[in-house]
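A.,

Following up on our hallway conversation. Structure tokens first:
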């Protein structure tokens, strides 16, 4: 499509903010709504249902009824597979519409909404669909007078609470394995980006997922989200979001019915570049490309860059040369690679961190300001801070914006110590030509994923999740089924 066509479609696209419960589009019972503003230009995209505990009760009841009567859970895995594959095909069929909704709702460039978000969502749903009729149960090696079967069963009613940075992908990472395993699901999208989740539910119904099996309750976290986390009839909660709210989710699970609670939380990933880095250009491209992708609003963004002192000047010269190409542009133009920050609150938070970096003595080498103010949207220039110290706020806290902190080291052990001196442990990277050093460092780094001589390794086949306060679960790969299934042992006496 041309840029002009994207703008024309954006102006006429119909957006439906009603909840999706038991196969129907409905407003909240209280009839309360909230406005949904686009970060691109501040325009009002329309009203969204403000679901609260009585709407959550309805969604949970629909999901429970659907689970208990087996309309989905009791279908043969091969039958569920066919439906999920059709669901994935339909996501691609409606790809332009979904990409446009995603870009308008949270500000990411349209080219990535299409090439990354739509494609990854479809791929994730297809992959779990294809997986489910290839997983076998187990027979334990017991004595000959008995048979012990170890089987996996769906947990039941799963609530998925997701953030706004990759709204569709984060939803797919939860709903695809949960649905594939036979569960019923209630999805709570972020109040900042509810539109694609709601559309996905309609598409799922069109694909053949029975009514009641997949419900979506938009609304605020402290209302719809908390009602799900506290609900006595939700069996499992899959949460992706901030560490602060993740802790509350675990408390609410304990306070209510001890539902299984899985958390995928924040990050402050360390990217260590040694002087013997085998390809400095690739290291610079990865460091810069990865921190500014999605406007820096990625949980795994390598926001702490540790460069060995002897190559620092050369590295920074190359890095600074790349910066102008990351200037934010109109997200609806196909050549834009940096879009808008999701909303005014997040903008204020990012600008607050930039101010803290400056006041704590870090040197702002590039950016550091809000741009494109004339649009009415929220844009921040890609920003690099040099002379950062590990004790500074910008080195300790997750900024979730386009801000890179550069630290220098002379001893790899010291770099690893500082990399690990974080409450987070989502991802990390080491760049070196020395194989032993790469392996030793990868082993020493306390992170769920470690990259060696790259930062873009990512595939649905591998688990994604963190150590420490980056969470307690793993999305993606076959391991995600561990979250949405129970293990049952059945003993059979052989007489
Ligand atoms: P957030 O924690 O503010 O919100 C996440 C979700 O929780 C939203 O749907 C929100 O409405 C809901 N919520 C808020 N308060 C709640 C409450 N009291 N009870 C129940 N639900 C509540 O996070 P965010 O700002 O939407 O997302 C950014 C965060 O997500 C970052 O920290 C980022 O690192 C993290 N993230 C992690 C991963 C991962 O896989 N580890 C992936 C993407 C984003």
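Then the amino acids I'd put at each of the 495 positions:
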């Amino acid at each position: 499509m041309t840029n002009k066509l994207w703008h024309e479609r954006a102006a006429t696209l119909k957006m439906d903010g009603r909840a999706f419960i038991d196969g129907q589009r409905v407003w909240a019972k209280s009839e309360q709504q909230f406005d949904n503003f686009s970060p691109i230009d501040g325009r009002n995209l329309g009203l969204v249902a403000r679901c609260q505990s009585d709407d959550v009760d309805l969604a949970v009841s629909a999901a429970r009824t659907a689970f208990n009567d087996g309309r989905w859970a009791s279908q043969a895995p091969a039958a569920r597979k066919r439906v999920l594959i059709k669901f994935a095909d339909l996501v691609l069929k409606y790809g332009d519409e979904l990409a446009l909704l995603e870009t308008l709702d949270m500000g990411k460039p349209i080219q990535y909404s299409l090439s990354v978000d739509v494609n990854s969502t479809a791929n994730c749903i297809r992959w779990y669909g294809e997986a489910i009729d290839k997983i076998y149960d187990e027979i334990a090696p017991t004595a000959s007078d008995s048979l012990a079967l170890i089987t996996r069963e769906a947990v039941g009613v799963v609530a998925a609470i997701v953030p706004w940075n990759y709204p569709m992908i984060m939803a797919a990472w939860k709903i695809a394995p949960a649905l594939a395993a036979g569960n019923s699901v209630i999805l709570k999208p972020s109040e900042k980006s509810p539109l694609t989740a709601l559309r996905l539910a309609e598409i799922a119904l069109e694909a053949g997922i029975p009514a009641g099996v997949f419900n979506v309750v938009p609304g605020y976290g402290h209302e719809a989200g908390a009602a799900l986390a506290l609900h006595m009839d939700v069996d499992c909660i899959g949460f992706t979001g901030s560490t602060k709210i993740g802790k509350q989710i675990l408390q609410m699970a304990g306070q209510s019915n001890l539902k299984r609670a899985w958390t995928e939380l924040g990050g402050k990933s360390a990217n260590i570049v040694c002087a013997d880095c085998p390809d400095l250009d690739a290291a610079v491209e990865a460091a810069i490309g990865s921190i500014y992708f999605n406007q820096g609003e990625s949980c795994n963004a390598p926001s702490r860059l540790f460069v060995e002192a002897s190559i620092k000047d050369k590295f920074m010269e190359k890095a600074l040369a790349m910066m102008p190409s990351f200037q934010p542009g109109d997200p609806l133009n196909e050549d834009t690679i940096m879009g808008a920050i999701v909303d005014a609150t997040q903008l204020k938070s990012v600008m607050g961190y930039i101010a803290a970096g400056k006041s704590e003595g870090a040197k702002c080498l590039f950016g550091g300001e809000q741009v494109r103010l004339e649009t009415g949207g929220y844009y921040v220039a890609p920003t690099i801070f040099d002379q950062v110290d590990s004790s500074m706020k910008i080195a300790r806290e997750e900024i979730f914006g386009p801000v890179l902190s550069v630290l220098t080291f002379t001893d790899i052990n010291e770099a690893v110590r500082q990399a690990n001196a974080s409450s987070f442990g989502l991802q990390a990277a080491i760049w070196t030509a020395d194989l032993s050093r790469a392996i030793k460092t990868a082993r020493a780094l306390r992170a769920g994923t470690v990259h060696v001589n790259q930062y873009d390794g990512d595939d649905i086949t591998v688990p994604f999740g963190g150590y420490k306060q980056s969470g307690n679960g793993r999305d993606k790969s076959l391991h995600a089924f561990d979250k949405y299934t129970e293990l049952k042992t059945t003993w059979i006496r052989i007489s």
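The two ends are 70 Å apart (CA to CA). Curious whether your intuition agrees with the design.

B.
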